[in-house]
Amino acid sequence: MTHPQKVFVARLVGLAVLGPDGESIGRVRDVVISMHLPGQQPRALGLAVELTTRRRIFVPMLRVTSIEPDAVTLTTGHVNLRKLSMRPNEALAVGQVLDSRVRTDDPDHPDLHDVDLTVTDIGIERNRNRDWMVSRVAVRSMRKGFRRRGETAVIDWRHIVGMTRLELARPGQGVERALIQFEKMRAADVANALRELPDKRRNEIAAALDNERLADVLQEMSTDDQSEVLASLKPERAGDVLEAMDPDDVADLVADLPVSEAEALLSQMDPEESESVRRLLQHSPDTAGGVMTPEPLILTANATVSEALARVRDPDINSAAASMVFVVRPPTNTPTGKFLGCVHTQRLLREPPANLIGGILDTEMPRLHPGDSLETMTRFFATYNLVSAPVVDDASHLLGAVAVDDLLDALLPADWRDNDPEGQAQ
Length: 426
Description:
alpha+beta; SH3 type barrels; elongated; CBS domain-containing protein; 3-stranded mixed beta sheet; single chain; CBS-domain; MgtE N-terminal fold; about 20% strand; Mg_transptr_MgtE_intracell_dom; magnesium ion transmembrane transporter activity
């Protein structure tokens, strides 16, 4: 007779999920557990598995045949690809339960009685019925100096008080473990994960992210979700986050809001930061002027190749924006002086570093007009095989640049981030 398997849920996060033939299905991102009445043993219902397409699905624990140090193996490679959806009595172990506040009446740990504790991990164990039950809870004292720093106690679930859905809904739950989980994830993946959480938990995590990270995550959310998260922040913090976002994403957000709400958000930004957003709002959202970013890479003709490459290497510049440098006469802030042309990054890599970029300009680069439609832009990118293109007015001033990813955002339905494509089951 084999011994029941035991594992702590935090150890599962990031493990590869394999079918019986070793084919990769995705990676574990969390564990879904039941949260019923106090005194009723919680059960691990299944895994939140992230596919290569970034969609998260639910895989029942009954499908799990083994848990190894580097992978979880399932009984079948055929899984339901329907998007993960949480029920009222369910919670994500890592996303919601870890870092929550509990107490214990464990007679083996009298020093922890009447002490606020933080859940650091949850142990699950497979019983004879092949159900995975929550059997142990790892906790740490919140009282400084009460126990040795970092010391953790493992308590039988029966002696844990407060690990219920009602308690999880109370304010003040910690977010440390969730932040660690999200630390190495792409912004779009973090946005997907936050959508699965209750509003309270999502807002707690958003409040704990730094401005730049939160700005990156918000840019991967729908405008409705963006508005709700920003509304949960203090006005000054909301303004700081908006300033860290790309101006075109801020314009998309405020364009969908009532005028009074839009103005309230813009008023929280520095006037110089909000000015570029206000210029974008002058254009229809389905035109090049409404889709463009007003902050592409812009230099004057007397800049050197090495200076241009230094700008391109900036890790905060996305790949589309880094594909070319736009060259203008001063001023270099949009709307700029006369647009002279562009230099493709590939050309920069073939030139001596001391050369001036004014001598290697592509002056025949096709240009978009701020009033060009989505169809015109689509044909433009398909014709010229570009990932970024200049938007120039009738007076030859550079107003900004349209990146192909922003064009795709404009072409897709407004709620495309929230809805999965059809045919998700196999």
